């Protein structure tokens, strides 16, 4: 840690970071990075600390005096402003961000992603504190290409699909498609943060993640999450593989996505933390445009990777098709492609992702097989016995 310098060669001074949502997937990896590689202190705020327990105990850990856990629900807790005042930087990771919830719990989704974030922005602005706010690639909505005729040659032109922070429009479906409740709430809080910067001088950075993947992501239903819940696509497929069930392809699995390894993404966030002069006032896409696949291709690749890491043969019927209405319920809608333009983050922070899709899937599925396989076998044998 000695002699750490920023991208401009200046010494990096230790800072205190108030991290809201520190106990989640992204927060746990960011806390690990900060503890093992930097001198910074973290005030970790969340309702649960299960994913960061290994950083909090025992008290003899080398960084024990640099991380404190505060069990706070940010909805109605007066202690939040005090913690933001104590810190130099606030990172807000708190959100409902599971697609199955967007049209079944639209009010919770809007409140979590907009209303609950308002005090955080206000406290940072009023107290002159820097804010790194986690948004989403969903704020782009649908691509312009999605509205072109199926046989249009323009569909081959990346200009209609590649998403740029400063020029791409944000195109959402009609109001009755409540799936866009999440994207709309996230976009509005971005606009509010941007306005606080313009009118009141708030120092901010906005992060737009594009499918960050890795160990400890999301939940496996009935094992470390609710039995009835539907996690995001990669955890859904992992759950099917662990239970030896066919992977469900929503509407044929034709949507295209890019996936990035969590450890690559965290490198980008650390650069934002330690280079405020280059990061303030910017919105950054953080994704890997080289790792683009259809959801069907993702299912096929995950089936192969899982066979390799588990030693189990593939199912005779590895996938089945299911409609979005049947899978997600009424009000679901989707975007066809999401490819991040990386020009701004590359120019400002000289950052590029490194890990291939195969390698990130192998790392994630190895962890999941090791962590969950036995628990799922026991759960399945119990349900059979009952």
Overall shape: globular
| SSE order | EHEHEHEHHHEEHEEHEEEHHEEHEHEHH
Look at the structure and give the CATH class.
Alpha Beta
Give the oligomeric state of the chains in this entry, treating copies of one chain as homo and distinct chains as hetero. Answer: single chain
C-alpha end-to-end distance: 55 Å
Whole-number total of structural domains? 1
Q: Characterize the largest beta sheet: strand count, sense, and whether it forms a barrel.
A: 7 strands, parallel
Based on the coordinates given, report the CATH architecture.
Answer: 3-Layer(aba) Sandwich
Whole-number mean pLDDT:
91
Q: What level of helicity do the residues show?
A: 25-40%
Structural class: alpha/beta
The helix count comes to 14
Placed side by side, the strands forming the largest sheet appear as 3-2-1-4-5-7-12
Describe this structure as you would to a colleague.
It is a single chain. The chain has 386 residues and is of the alpha/beta class. It has one domain (95-373): NAD(P)-binding Rossmann-like Domain (Rossmann fold, 3-Layer(aba) Sandwich), CATH 3.40.50. Helix content is 39%, strand content 15%. The protein is built from 14 helices and 15 strands. Helix 1 crosses helix 9, helix 5 (106-115) packs parallel to helix 7 (181-200) and helix 8 (233-242) packs across helix 11 (295-310). It is globular and about 55 Å long. The N and C termini lie far apart (55 Å). The model has no long low-confidence stretch (mean pLDDT 91).
């Amino acid at each position: 840690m000695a002699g750490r310098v920023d991208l401009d060669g200046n010494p990096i001074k230790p800072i205190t970071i108030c991290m809201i949502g520190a106990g989640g997937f992204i927060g746990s990896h960011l806390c690990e990075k900060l503890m093992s590689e930097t001198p910074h202190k973290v005030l970790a705020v969340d309702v649960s600390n299960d994913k960061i327990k290994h950083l909090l105990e025992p008290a003899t850990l080398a960084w024990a005096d640099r991380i404190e856990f505060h069990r706070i629900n940010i909805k109605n807790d007066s202690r939040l402003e005090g913690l933001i005042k104590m810190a130099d930087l606030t990172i807000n990771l708190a959100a409902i961000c599971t697609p199955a919830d967007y049209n079944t719990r639209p009010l919770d989704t809007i409140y979590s992603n907009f209303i609950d974030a308002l005090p955080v922005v206000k406290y940072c602005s009023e107290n002159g504190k820097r804010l790194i706010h986690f948004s989403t690639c969903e704020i782009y909505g649908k691509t312009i290409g999605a509205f072109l005729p199926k046989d249009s040659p323009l569909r081959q032109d990346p200009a209609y699909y590649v998403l740029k922070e400063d020029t791409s429009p944000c195109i959402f479906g009609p109001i009755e498609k409540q799936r866009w409740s999440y994207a709309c709430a996230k976009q509005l809080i971005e606009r509010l943060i941007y306005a606080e910067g313009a009118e009141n001088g708030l120092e901010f950075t906005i992060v737009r993640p594009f499918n960050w993947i890795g160990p400890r992501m999301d939940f496996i239903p009935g094992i470390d999450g609710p039995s009835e819940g539907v996690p995001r696509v990669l955890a859904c497929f992992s759950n099917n593989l662990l239970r030896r069930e066919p992977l469900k392809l929503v509407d044929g699995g034709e949507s295209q996505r890019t996936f990035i390894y969590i450890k690559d993404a965290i490198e980008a966030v650390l650069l934002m933390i330690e280079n405020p002069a280059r990061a303030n006032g910017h919105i950054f896409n953080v994704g890997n445009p080289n790792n683009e696949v259809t959801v069907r291709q993702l299912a096929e690749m995950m089936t192969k990777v899982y066979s390799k890491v588990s030693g189990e043969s593939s199912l005779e019927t590895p996938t089945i098709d299911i409609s979005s209405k049947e899978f997600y319920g009424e009000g679901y809608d989707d975007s066809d492609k999401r490819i991040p333009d990386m020009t701004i983050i590359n120019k400002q922070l000289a950052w590029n992702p490194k890990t291939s899709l195969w390698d990130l899937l192998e790392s994630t599925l190895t962890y999941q097989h090791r962590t969950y396989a036995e628990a799922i076998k026991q759960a399945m044998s119990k349900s059979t016995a009952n």
